[in-house]
Amino acid sequence: MSNAFLNTPIEYLKNVGPQRADVLKKELHIFTYHNLLQHYPFRYVDRTKFYKIKEINADLPYVQLRGKITATEMVGAKRTKRFVATFTDETGRLELVWFQGAKWISEKIKPHLTNEYVIFGKPALFNGKFNIAHPEIELVSDENTVFASALQAVYHSTDKLKGKSLDTKGIAKIMKGLVSLIKNNIPESLSTDIINRFQLLSKEEAVKQIHFPKSPELLKKAEFRLKFEELFFIQLKLLKQKSTREKNYRGFVFSKVGDNFNTFYNHHLPFELTNAQKRVIKEIRLDMGSGKQMNRLLQGDVGSGKTLVALMNMLIALDNSRPEDGIPFQACLMAPTEILANQHFETISTLLKPLNKNVGILTGSTKTKARRLLHEQLQNGEMHILIGTHALLEDEVQFKNIGLIVIDEQHRFGVAQRAKMWNKNSLTPHVLIMSATPIPRTLAMTLYGDLDVSVIDEMPPGRKPIQTVHRFDSNRLRVFEFMREQIAIGRQVYVVYPLIKESEKMDYKDLMDGYESIVRAFPQPQYQVSIVHGQMKADAKEYEMQRFVKAETQIMVATTVIEVGVNVPNASVMIIESAERFGLSQLHQLRGRVGRGAEQSYCILMTSHKLSSDGKLRMDTMCRTNDGFEIADVDLKLRGPGDMSGTQQSGVLDLHIADLAKDAQILHAARNMAIELLSEDTNLEKPENATIAYHFAMMGKERTNWSRIS
Ligand code: ADP
Ligand code: MG
Questions:
Q1: Whether 440 and 491 share a structural domain
Q2: 391 CA to middle of ligand 1, Å?
Q3: Which of 304, 337, 406, 408 to mutate to test the pocket of ligand 1 (most atoms within 8 A of CB)?
Q4: Positive or negative, the Cα torsion across 398, 402, 408, 410?
Q5: Does pTM surpass 0.90?
Q6: What stretches of 274-423 adopt beta strand conformation (E)?
Q7: Could you report the per-residue pLDDT of 101-116, keeping only the tens digit for each?
Q8: Listed residues 425, 456, 487: the one ending a domain
């Protein structure tokens, strides 16, 4: 917002000055009046509720009391010097204590027969009696009372700010000074039409009410107004980016479905496609034939069969050629790990054998000679499909005519890499991003608001739902017993250990201890055990992996290396050690490694007896449901969007007031409104949308992080 008032540097505000301004900048990035006004309260205390002294107990957080000061006293000397006031109401008495600022407060507060005070603070039990240290205190008759509003804002602060007396109360004080300056100087950012339609408060009123609400109703309206606005402008931005991109980047037109696709579909499909797979293949095909450049997110739970969908669409790319010179298109698939790239390569080259297509693989461990040949074949067009890791992004990798890029597990790659892929060619190929991390709709709409989305919402037939149980470490022998039973009927077992960067050494030790105890409990030659972890060389990893894939070993001990994509249909048991240390989406991903065949599969979550309530909820959720989207919703509520996988680097979640976990409805309303607005006024040129256009233009000039998304 460009506006003289709002852009006023914060040091000009009464009671701020250079020193406080300095900490505000460093600690909270508050540089201007506008920034301070956007430092929204994170909760409110209801100041309409008064307690009586006799109601006080140790469980109460903060209480508000009304009463008189009947005695005061300065106690102790030097370091222990403190000011003690006796506070009484008709039900009892308690002590108020000040250690800091004792002298100042002793001058302010005098015992008085009639003067009434309101105090607010956290009671603590001391020598069998309750007292309150450093309460907020105010004379009831005081005109200027900060308690004027019934709902009092509580602000985030930091130790450094508190050092400058900018705790929540201190922030409220300077905020009050600032809000008192607001008089027709906060410009409206939305159109009259939108304000009327949603019965929104004006921007100015909303800003005042959010900090000093006059009533719960007004607070609600202020919150709605500000959340709506925030989400509306983000959606507007994403939608505009999308339409600009669609205008500027013409896509290749894949107009036909030809021999490659048809031969495969009619003769070599390993199984009947699910209806969801058929629908999604069609969505993608139509998009690639539409003339615009496709940017599509393909969401489907683990095991829903995304690989086949990708393959069939790559065949469509191969079926088409560039109109100018008739050169056929190539396709590539990028995976996040070498193991996964190898697995995709195996699957796809096996499936395509009858079609006589040239499928290549490029990873970090591809040898120089093979690499050179690959580069050559990519450039002369002999290579049809290239599969690999982020090694595909290296500059030497140049295609003759790349038409489709498939990225598996998008969240592991940053958006920057997505962009880099695009620039491999003068014309922009179609991009299909596959994600098995079910993202709640609200998050997808914000995070990927500039992408189209396809969802595979159906599992291949014949899968039995995985049975999940939670067991404590003390039951390990029973769990070993169960493993033996499963191995006896021919199944294989995963045992997964957490590996977290910060405690890598310890985790590594846990893994090795675990491996040893398993080898002891499952001795050779009857049992064979594989182990795979991040510190192993790629070929050693691959070797161990292959032994398990070929069922030469029955047990695979691993860290989360196996999290993504590994496909061993005969593995029917997943044991997750220290399961409490994993987030929900990761647990769900790991569980997805089993249940890939026709056999009944099991997931056993091992934890210690010490479980936080969050931890308990995570285990219960996993045991209750197999539905990835339901799990993602719980995850979002538990952790908030900032911790969801894939969101960290996006910056899109740098929201001031909206909360994606709670504000799904507002988000929908805001998005629909943005879509409607742009459909009627694509360039925001109509006079009635001038305020929106102005605000939108200014927004780009601000230091907003979420503009990083594209
Ligand atoms: P993901 O979506 O997790 O990448 P995959 O593509 O690896 O899933 O598929 C999981 C398993 O399901 C594979 O073994 C695959 O061969 C099998 N599969 C895929 N589609 C079908 C289908 N329509 N019918 C039966 N099995 C299928
Ligand atoms: Mg996959």
A1: no
A2: 26
A3: 304
A4: positive
A5: no
A6: 295-300, 330-334, 359-362, 385-388, 402-408
A7: 788 888 888 888 888 8
A8: 456
